[in-house]
What we know:
The protein is an alpha/beta fold. It has helices at residues 3-15, 40-51, 61-76, 141-159, 194-201, 230-249, 268-273, 310-325, and strands at 80-89, 95-105, 112-118, 166-172, 213-216, 279-282.
Amino acid sequence: MKKGVFLVLSILLMLSCGNLRKQTADETAVAQPVGPAFCADSAYQYCQAQCNFGPRVMNSVAHDQCEQWIIAKFKSFGMEVMAQKADLKGYDGTILHSTNIIASYKPELSERVLLCAHWDSRPWADNDPDEANHKKPVMAANDGASGVAVMLEVARLLSADTLGIGVDFICFDAEDWGVPQWSDATDDGNSWALGAQYWSANLHRKGYKPRFGILLDMVGGQGALFYKEGMSLQYASNVVDKVWRAAQVVGFGSLFPTQTGGYITDDHIPVNTKAKIPTIDIIPYYPNCEQSSFGPTWHTVNDDMAHIDKNTLQAVGQTMIQVLYSE
Length: 327
């Protein structure tokens, strides 16, 4: 796309929550934005709505209330919704009453794409610079709510539009009960992503095999840059390339650097290793952040709505629309 047209389309994308469709039938044309325009204001409100319940810590009233809200929102968009219940054991022996929420767009179609995120909150702000906060719960506006918010807005747009493939939105539970930094327990990585581990071994539909999966983790933070995550490159480099190209096309290439970031233990690991679905992780990498390479609010009491950036939500959300409508 020529630079002038590219900038105009990018500006229109940022200012409008209307429709942005490919206008040419010329198959030789340079790739350009397709599909509806993602509305960051809407995604921001979905993020806020989750936080209004308080921290969605496992086995809490806020967790149960938010579960019902998420299910109701997906249903309101015409999605077929399934609640996959399981009692899972945390690192400390706590039985976690877990619910993976699975919402399906056009469940009758065999050709499908998976979008996923976790929706539970970290029980302990164990990376907070103030040690007095280490056993306080995290609001998880970014580390939890943002990924669900982006998926809900994508689902809303699909409900008012037509897409030729099916899409499954999975909200994984019990992701963030991993061994805290203040614990003496050994952290071998298996205490994390418990809901994703369970789903990957107990797929909601027999023979479920989407084309690929994309995990959205912490996709609303200020100053976020989404480097190519190492394990994603190992398991699904072609999907990484697809997503990063899409980000370039819709004008957000600056937020998706082509360099490799860290190697992350996250929900996409069991989806790749157990479910055998090529899945990548869109997750921020802050190479110069002293607090954490996941950013200054990660696992702190400051992971709240004051640190959510609509431009970050827009970048990830429009990239997801581009990916889906390019299939």
